[in-house]
């Protein structure tokens, strides 16, 4: 889907839906997911249609994910961290999370 230009830079490991992926230090969650071949971040509350990052600058809210237990985080604005746990967001966010 996406190909990185060059293969330089330090990396770290995070998990997405329980699967470990490698990301470059400085990547956002959305960029790391795209580079790892993960094609969607969330599903819509009504139809369950998969949604993928679109603007990658925090305007469209298509990249909502759950990060370390906190739902509705914009993956394009959250920098990756070692050991971070990311989950695709299915439907609407749970109340009280």
What does this protein look like?
The chain has one domain: Roll (Ubiquitin-like (UB roll)). Helices cover 7% and strands 32% of the residues. It has one helix at 29-35, and strands at residues 11-16, 19-24, 42-43, 50-51, 64-67, 70-74, 85-90. Strands 1, 2, 3, 4, 5, 6 and 7 form a seven-stranded mixed beta sheet that branches. It is globular and about 40 Å long.
| Number of structural units classed as domains | 1
Q: Report the CATH superfamily.
A: 2Fe-2S iron-sulphur cluster binding domain, sarcosine oxidase, alpha subunit, N-terminal domain
- Largest beta-sheet characterization: 7 strands, mixed
**Approximate shape:** globular
Distance between the termini: 32 Å
SSE pattern, N- to C-terminal: EEHEEEEE
CATH architecture: Roll
Computed structural class: mainly beta
Compute the gyration radius: what is it? 13 Å
Topology-level CATH name: Ubiquitin-like (UB roll)
Annotation, overall tally of beta strands: 7
Mean pLDDT comes to 91
**Name of the CATH first level:** Alpha Beta
Beta content:
25-35%
Percentage of helical residues? under 10%
Low-confidence stretches: none
Tell me the number of helical segments per DSSP (H or I, 4 or more residues long): 1
